[in-house]
Amino acid sequence: MSAVSAESKLLRSRFDTRVLPDRLAQSAWTEAIDVIFDTRPRKSVKEGFFASVDAAFMGDVALGRVRSTAQDFDRSRYKIGRDGLDGYLLQFYLKGRSVSRGGSNSEVAGEGDLYVIDMAQPLSTVTTDHDQISFVVPRRLMATRVEYADATHMKVVPAGLPLVALFRESLKSFYGQLDRMSLREAEIAIPPLLDLAAAAINGHADERSMAGVNLASFVGLRRHVEDNLLDPSLTLDSLLATFGLSRRKAYRLFEPVGGFATYVNRRRLQCALHALRSPDRRHMSISEIGRFHCFANAENFSRAFRREYGLSPRAVRQLAASGRSLPDAAWRLSEMGWAQWIESIGR
User: Fold this and answer.
1) Which residues partner with 304 through β-bridges?
2) Per-residue pLDDT for 166 more than 50?
3) Which of 121, 31, 139, 136 is nearest to 76 (CA)?
């Protein structure tokens, strides 16, 4: 596998009022978020106001993490008529909460709850200081998956429900991989994520949404692999024993990533790549780095490494020492603004 090219890299966009002059911070945020909401911050800059967005765009959907101080958010019928956005925001508050202004306690979205916003319907809420993940999906991708899709606006699905927890952890894991993920990898993961989202909203998993449930199961297995990646005793048999899985089920879960052995081997090679480029590991020989990453001998390590990256471990180390980048590894992201993404998704 070669380095990710510019064409296959995810488009990223970042916005943070804290890098702006104080006099521009609130107006810049109000203008940026205007694509979806009219907003009124409840704190001045002197009182600690800030807002930041770290987002990725994947063709049909966008995923972003938003951190901000307390605000009022509104989406009026006039605004809906003016912008014509037609999609869903699926949100998880990692910290803080959102409350419908003038509403009842049943309209409170707290930490860990799944909060569904239909962009084609009015909204009037207030948030506390918060940290949340938003998944932006066009209606055409959700309407066929969700039962009574037009009745889901401002629906709060409790955090403790198993399918909600699975979707939340899967979305957090997906966000955590954005910097290393190619567009192709994201496109493969999105349909089962949408299926899992539908299962969480519907309150049950049908045959169609089982792909999403399987993805969530794979997240747990992958976490175990990451925690034990440099343990030579990590094998498929040890994984089966730890999770009580059948071999057939494990094969099915790891099939999209080429199988268990391929996945583990690739992750070890990725870690070895970082070690070869790290100044902190220059005291280690190439064969020592190979053994540290569970390759029995230098020949096997070099052969596997060259197959994966098209370069020998020695060449990578020499490039790193000279301050040069890997071939094809330098790219400039064409950062389309996240607000424009929402417009394109919602049309």
Assistant:
1) none
2) yes
3) 121
